[in-house]
Amino acid sequence: MKLRIATRKSALALAQTTMAADEIVAANRGCKNVANENAAEEKIAEDNVAGENCADLSYELVSMTTEGDRRLDKSLASFGGKGVFIKELEVALLEGRADIAIHSLKDMPAEVLPEFKLAAVLKREDPRDAFLARGGKDGSRFMDLPAGAKVGTGSIRRVVQLKALRPDLEYVPIRGNIQTRISKLSELDGVVLAAAGLKRMGLADQVTEYFDTDKMLPASGQGILAIETLKDGCAPEVTAALNRVNHLETYCIAVAEMAFLKALDAGCQFPVASFAEIADAGVDAADVPTSECAGNRVLKIRGIYWDEATKRLLRAEDSAAFDVAAVESVQKAKQLGVSLAELIKKQLNP
Fold first, then answer.
1. Within 10 A of 96 (CB to CB), how many other CB atoms are there?
2. What parts of the chain have a pLDDT lower than 70?
3. What are the Cα distances from residue 261, in Å, to 125, 225, 294?
C-alpha cells in the first residue's frame, strides 16, 4: 500500500511530514491490515485479513503551497486565520489526490470541518517557545536585553505575554519560514520561534534560551503533528495504519487544548492559548516523562486570554484525575478543556 500524503512545500513542513511518514511506516512494519477491526478483536479469521502486508507500506508526498504561505505581507488574522495553512491540503483529500494530510496542530482551527477528522497525532515534541538573540548562544538573554530592544514575532499570543515580562521592549511583526525569521536578526535584537520547529530542522544550536511554560504559555497544539483524513471514505487499511502510530497521550492533550479554543470561539486573531500536561498524581507534570496507559495520573491544563476591553491578561488552570487508557479518556480531556474555558469566561463576565 502506498500512502499519498498532502503537505505544504516549506522546508519545515516537508521535514515534519517526512518524519511523520517514516514513523507511520515504522509503526506498521510487520503488521497485517485488518479489514474489520471490531470483528478482529473477537476473532481473526483469514477472510477478515486484508491481503496486503504493512511491511510493504510506502508513501509519496503531494506537496503544495497554501494561501498562508503565499501571503507573507499580511498578518494571518487579516485574511482568514489558521485555516489558510490547511485549506489546499483538505481540498486534495476531498478530490482524492491524497489519502492523508499532515499539519502542525497549532495551524489547525479549533474544530475541523465536518468532512474531516483528526485521525492521529504523533508524540509531542518540545512545546516551548525559544528566544534567539543576535549572537546566538552567546547573545543576550531575553530579560537582559536593554530597554527599547527590538524583538520579532508573528504571534499576538507571544506579544501579550512578552509584554507582561518586558513592557519596555519593541515587538516587531515578522512572518515567513524559519530561515527567513532567523535572518531578521541582522536588523533585530532577537526573535521568538517555536522550539519544536527549530529542533526538527536541526537548528537548536542557535537557541539562546527557552521560555519556561510558566512565563510563556505555548500555542494550543504547539509541537504536535496532526494527521487528518476524510471523516467518511477513508480506506480501512489507512485507518488501521494510522491507529498504530497514534500517540494516545498526546491525542488526549490535543483534544483538551483544542476544546478550550473552541469553547472560547478563538482563533489566531485572538491572544489566547492553552497547554495541557499529564503527570503522576501529586507530581508536577513538567517533571514527569510521558508514558502511555498509566493509571493514577492527572491531566492539568492552563490557559490564557487577553481581554482587550480591560487590557488584562486572564489566566486560569484546571485539572482532573486521568487514565489515558480508559475508554472515556478522550471525552474527559475534551470536558476539561471546556471547563477551563468556563473559568476564563467567568473572569470576562464577573
1. 10
2. 32-55, 66-84, 266-269, 282-295
3. 21, 18, 27
Count the neighbouring beta carbons within 10 Å of the beta carbon of residue 120.
27
Please give the helix or strand (H or E) that residue 86 lies within, else none. none
Alpha helices in 95-200 (DSSP H): 156-165, 178-183, 195-200
* Cβ atoms of 52 and 237 closer than 8 Å: yes
Among 102, 89, 99, 97, which residue's Cα sits nearest to residue 2?
99
Is the torsion defined by CA of 246, 247, 252, 254 positive or negative? Answer: negative
Report the C-alpha gap between 103 and 259 in whole angstroms. Answer: 18
Backbone angles phi and psi of 189, in degrees to 5? -85, -15
pLDDT at 349: 77
Give the model confidence (pLDDT) of 159-181 as tens digits: 999 999 999 999 999 988 899 99
Convert the pLDDT of each residue in 276-306 to its tens digit.
Answer: 999 987 655 554 444 433 457 999 999 999 9
Q: How many degrees, rounded to 5, is the angle at CA 125 between CA 120 and CA 127?
A: 110
| Helices of type H across the chain | 11-27, 37-42, 67-70, 87-94, 156-165, 178-183, 195-200, 236-245, 248-263, 329-348
Contact 241, 24 (CB under 8 A): yes
Please give the positions annotated as active site. Answer: 107
Grid coordinates in use for 263?
469553547
CB-CB contact of 288 with 309 (8 Å): no
Nearest to 263 by CA among 320, 346, 158: 346
